Amino acid sequence: VGFAKSDLKEKADLASVKQENTSNANGLYVDADYTFKFKYGLGFTPGIEWVFIGDKSIQELGLGDSKSESKFKEHYVNIPLKLDWGIDIKVVRVFVFAGPTLSFNVSSKTSSTTVDTKDFFEKLGGKYGNFDLMLGGGVGVDVLNKIRVKFAYDWGLVNRGNDDIKLHRQQLKLGVAYLF
Distance between CA 7 and CA 156 in Å, rounded? Predict the structure, then answer.
């Protein structure tokens, strides 16, 4: 369980407008995973995550001067597939991890004072993709083999927009877990 911060990097390249913008949203995540341990401190950790992000006053991508304040909520189901390496130091295990995450947007709701986001993208002939392949890594610490503190960052590799409006999501996570 932990804190999640998501950034949606937007780059519009239309005939009349060229601009870049980043929308930020905060939320939380809940995950479950299992580590298959190998020799020399190596392991493979597949898992499943539910991520909720939302914000009440983000700036929406607009054209020219037509930006507006928005309400934003998204739910994701992620499948991280991480390789990790760690070292045991007395009662503490310090580890690093990296790998891909399959991210599925299962619900997305954005409304603004001027136009709904789905309508905004459709009017521009665009789309908002529901799948992302993210690549990331992080560090963590296990204490007494019972408590885990973990920091991770993922970069979205898939353009969730189209050729005119490029949308790439990045997410930062900080969590605390109880180990069984």
Answer: 10
CA distance 83 to 137: 9
CA angle 70, 111, 74 (to 5 degrees): 90
Average of per-residue pLDDT across 53-63: 61
Average pLDDT, whole number, for the chain? 84
Nearest-5° angle of CA 174, CA 165, CA 65?
95
Residue 23 in tokens: 């929308």
**Dihedral (CA of 134, 103, 3, 179) sign:** negative
Gyration radius of the chain's alpha carbons: 19
Residue (of 16, 8, 64) closest to 164 by Cα position: 16
Distance CA 110, CA 70 (A): 7
Tell me the pairing of strands 69-89 and 165-178: unpaired
pLDDT score at 87: 95
The single-letter code of the amino acid at 170 is: Q
User: What is the pTM (predicted TM-score) of this model?
Assistant: 0.81
CB 157 within 8 A of CB 134: yes
